[in-house]
Amino acid sequence: MLRIKNLLLFILIAGFTISCSRDSNEEPGSGGVDRTANLKSLGSSASDLLSDVMFTSMNIEIVYVEGNRPTDEGINLFRNFLERRIFKPDGIQINLRAVNSSGKAPFSIEEIVDIEKKERTAYNVGDEIAVWIYFADGSNEKDTNEKFVLGSAFRNTSMVIYERTIREFASRAGAPDRATIEAATLNHEFGHLFGLVDLGTEPVTDHEDPENEGHCVVEGCLMRASIEFGSGVVNVIDGGGIPNLDDACLQDLQSVGGK
User: What angle in degrees, to the nearest 10, is found between the helix axes of 178-193 and 72-85?
Assistant: First the structure.
């Protein structure tokens, strides 16, 4: 989660395992694709995402609800983050497409899982690993006036970004711009897909926040989970940019095949 001077953006991770009994490996309309490899627990595919041992390319399917398309700048910043961290010699594809609203907002993670089941089309094929990202047209059901969720990583290759919440946050006086918030949220949540912190990738050194499972204790790290509550004006992200991964998190990624 991202450190803000007076209020930190709260990015929820849902670290639960979706049982394979919930979804069969193949279903009508799936084209006979085996989806099992994309229905695993959060962080369990860290090495596959980071290295080129099993997969030499990555296909990222971004599905956004009409009217909630992420900014081109945010996606470019996200791509730059991935290119600095992963080995995919055959490239990273990011494909965007619009879908109709589910009408289910505010969302529970279980509802997002149901939407993925309906809308996801990209799954691992050959030496290409697939990731699904949903830009939602509503908020998380656990939001309050003082704490709100910007994104959630919930499977090994799945996440949701609450684009409507990001837009509302970005419209506040003194808040970071929308592209910066989008990219910071995408980067943070992909960090959880990478297994950070201790969510499938064993830490090289002890740097998990004892009060916030799955997050880094190092001040200023992208994976930091410190939260301040308030209802006043929100200041910009420190330095006006996106936080980076600290050395401890980078060592963790490198230990399982990342840069």
Answer: 30
CA angle (162, 166, 171) in 5-degree steps:
155
d(CA 74, CA 82): 13
Q: How confident is the model at residue 143 (pLDDT cuts 50, 70, 90)?
A: confident
Local structure of 184: helix, strand or coil: helix
Tell me the two tokens of residue 7.
Answer: 């209020």
Mean pLDDT for 208-222 is 90
Q: For residue 62, count other CB atoms closer than 10 A to its CB.
A: 20
Is the CB of residue 212 less than 8 Å from the CB of residue 220?
Answer: no
End-to-end alpha carbon distance in the chain: 21
Average pLDDT for the chain:
84
Helix (H, G, I), strand (E, B) or coil at 189: helix
Enumerate domains of the chain plus CATH numbers.
36-255 (3.40.390.10)
pLDDT at 241 over 80: no
Q: What residue type is 216 in one-letter code?
A: C
